Amino acid sequence: MEGGGVDHLAEERQKSRFDVDEMKIVWAGSRHAFEVSDRVARLVASDPAFRKDNRNLLSRKELFKNTLRKAAYAWKRIMELRLTEEEAAKLRFFIDEPAYTDLHWGMFVPAIKGQGTEEQQQKWLPLAYKMQIIGCYAQTELGHGSNVQGLETTATFDPQTDEFIINSPTLTSSKWWPGGLGKVSTHAVAYARLIVNGQDHGVHGFIVQLRSLDDHMPLPGITVGDIGMKFGSGAYNTMDNGVLRFDHVRIPRNQMLMRVLQVTREGKVVQSDVPRQLIYGTMVYVRQTIVSDASSALSRAVCIATRYSAVRRQFGSQKGGPETQVIDYKTQQSRLFPLLASAYAFRFVGEWLKWLYTDVTQRLQANDFSTLPEAHACTAGLKSLTTSATADAIEECRKLCGGHGYLTSSGLPELFAVYIPACTYEGDNTVLLLQVARFLMKTVSQLGSGKQPVGSTAYMSRAEHLMQCRCSAQRVEDWLKPDVVLEAFEARALRMSVACAQNLSKFSNPEEGFAELSADLAEAAIAHCQLIVVSKFVEKLQQDIPGQGVKQQLQTLCFVYSLHLLHKHQGDFLSTGCITPKQASLANEQLRSLYSQVRPNAIALVDAFNYTDHYLGSVLGRYDGNVYPTLYEDAWKDPLNDSVVPDGYHEYLRPVLKQQLRNARL
Ligand SMILES: CCCCCCCCCCCCCC(=O)SCCNC(=O)CCNC(=O)[C@H](O)C(C)(C)COP(=O)(O)OP(=O)(O)OC[C@H]1O[C@@H](n2cnc3c(N)ncnc32)[C@H](O)[C@@H]1OP(=O)(O)O
Ligand SMILES: Cc1cc2nc3c(=O)[nH]c(=O)nc-3n(C[C@H](O)[C@H](O)[C@H](O)COP(=O)(O)OP(=O)(O)OC[C@H]3O[C@@H](n4cnc5c(N)ncnc54)[C@H](O)[C@@H]3O)c2cc1C
After folding, report:
1. Which residues form the Acyl-CoA oxidase C-terminal domain (predicted)?
2. Domains of the chain: which residue ranges?
């Protein structure tokens, strides 16, 4: 995407055999999405106010103030340029700095939209849209995060004053972690146990004002602050994750979000026809966005590692000629290309999940709640699968870049530090897999009852066939047949689920059985989620995809993704009898040959992500491949090089050296 100087990767770009511009549109999702993304990315890259190469050198206070400045400036530009919601979201994305705005727009607003009544939405959303109030999502407490029903904060209805009294009864009930809470938010959607007439009605959301809109001081009864430094020096420390305690804070009754459950003036608790699970709806929404974000983070790491692997040469010089580009080593390809394929796979499954979420939202508005369990299972499972894979992949990309990958200027350490909490926030990945497993066990238990499995479990309706079918692959080429690959994944997923269900049935207490078998259940959930990703990639290929060679590249990547999973999880496929050892070896042979097909197109396939050098933030991943001079120049910019002799020489080095010298003379 960059113009200018000598392109050290030009030869690589000429090798590619497909239309990169068309692939950029496929990656973006549509021509319109590409144009918005391209325009906004350039806008951010060209504005010095959005500089980010100095983040690691700032103290926490400077870092945080810098983030406040950027967020305020971004808001000013959004207003001045009259950006649409889509453009504003892209602007925040390309600024590439975790900030309170992520939680305001990403959780506070969606929580009010999803759980507030029409009246509540009309009151609060305009204030939030204009940023006259700034909000966060205060659910997790010091003592409980995963177990939402274990939260201890209370909201007790006082019929005399028509108010709720919000209270933190114990230390462990302190809210702990919410982003944007520590120093910024004026309001929170706080989750608390609803107590009416002494009866506990479970956890619900309440809009609570935390700070004065005049001087930003905490309101009476509110204790609030930041929870301290997190992993890495810059990274997620731009965010003010916070602690919050309530000491009998009173809020009007109409600040309880009442779409699911209402409390009347008289203190009557009325359940609407909306299911209780909708209280968890914001998490479904955010998990869906996290899947798309995974493809962004992964593609970014892969872009850096791929470009650098083409620049870097080690060994293999023939007659004084150039050494081998490390990207030409089969081991490098077998570690890198599955990650490249995963980036595309996660992009497409993210697109599908967005569609699923939109569909569920429309149904919910029409009071059709039938697809909510499916949406929960898919968002939870895919969030877990894609974030775990992406976190591992970023670290793998660092290793693929050798020693230079460990330099901050490679961009990879910061990307890793910012990204890894995605495996924990919005639901710990193992806890989420167990939610998928519950859904699978329920579906398996209903097989044969006449209730047809639908959506992502529709394959289970062919249980009779899938339980006994044998894979038909006999030659290497057979592993390029989508039906053969899909059936192997379906059979493996179903057989693992059925095996768990059979083992569960041996326990007289199902919950005890579930706990005992939870490791196997989590593996069955992974198999099911991998099947979803593979099947959505295959479905994508059934669409009309214009552009010379574009579809063929995607086909290659689809098989790289599927066959590398098959290779990695051979144990599952073999032990469930879905494939034979001979077929596993044929699949591996096919995979090796696919790597050779990816090789000439690798640089163009990462160019298709259309990332600016500003967004990539990596010397190793520069578009022009001009790595060494930039690394060399950058080293001299480090503050440690401000003076030739370091501070501390006279106090701490000279005396040691002198002492050694004296000892030597003795
Ligand atoms: C542009 C946007 C940018 C966005 C930027 C964002 C930046 C990100 C920055 C970082 C931001 C980080 C921000 C943060 O981190 S915010 C905090 C996030 N916290 C969590 O994710 C907590 C995880 N825990 C849970 O979700 C629950 O407690 C679980 C689910 C584990 C248990 O639950 P529970 O104790 O109740 O027990 P149950 O298992 O009997 O379940 C009962 C029933 O409910 C159904 N069920 C469960 N869950 C859902 C659901 N979600 N939708 C629909 N249904 C659901 C379930 O299937 C079952 O149904 P059925 O079997 O009875 O029919
Ligand atoms: C950077 C960051 C930002 C965050 N932002 C917010 C925010 O804005 N708002 C908010 O409310 N929260 C936020 N959180 C909190 C986050 O949602 C929780 O940390 C997360 O849900 C995990 O919960 P936990 O910390 O209680 O983990 P725990 O549940 O204590 O997990 C510890 C271990 O126990 C295991 N475990 C737990 N339960 C089970 C089980 N039933 N079966 C098997 N294993 C289990 C887990 O797999 C894990 O290995 C944030 C967290 C982070 C790190």
Report:
1. 482-658
2. 108-272, 447-607
CATH entry, 108-272, from 3.30.70.260, 2.60.120.560, 3.40.640.10, 2.40.110.10? 2.40.110.10
The answer to whether the beta carbons of residues 152 and 172 sit under 8 Å apart is yes
- Does 324 appear as a known binding residue? no
- What is residue 619's predicted lDDT score, i.e. its pLDDT? 98
Q: Any known ligand binding at 405?
A: no
Tens digits of residue pLDDT in 268-290:
999 988 888 889 999 999 999 99
According to the model, what pLDDT value does residue 1 have?
A: 62
Top-level CATH class of 447-607? mainly alpha
pLDDT of 391 reads: 98
pLDDT of residue 448: 85
pLDDT in tens, 105-144: 999 999 999 999 999 999 999 999 999 999 999 999 999 9
Burial per residue of 547-556, b for 16 or more beta-carbon CB atoms within 10 angstroms, e otherwise:
bebbbebbbb
Q: Going by CA atoms, what residue is nearest to atom 41 of ligand 2?
A: 431
Instruction: Using the Cα atoms of residue 55, residue 60, residue 62 and residue 65 in order, give the sign of their dihedral.
Output: positive
H/E segment holding residue 100? helix 100-103
* Rounded Cα–Cα distance for residues 420 and 236 (Å): 10
**Side chain identity at residue 81, one-letter code:** L
Give the Å distance between the CA of 435 and the centre of ligand 2.
14
Distance 434 CA to ligand 2 centre (A): 14
Domains 108-272 and 447-607 share a fold: no
Whether 426 is a known active-site residue: answer yes
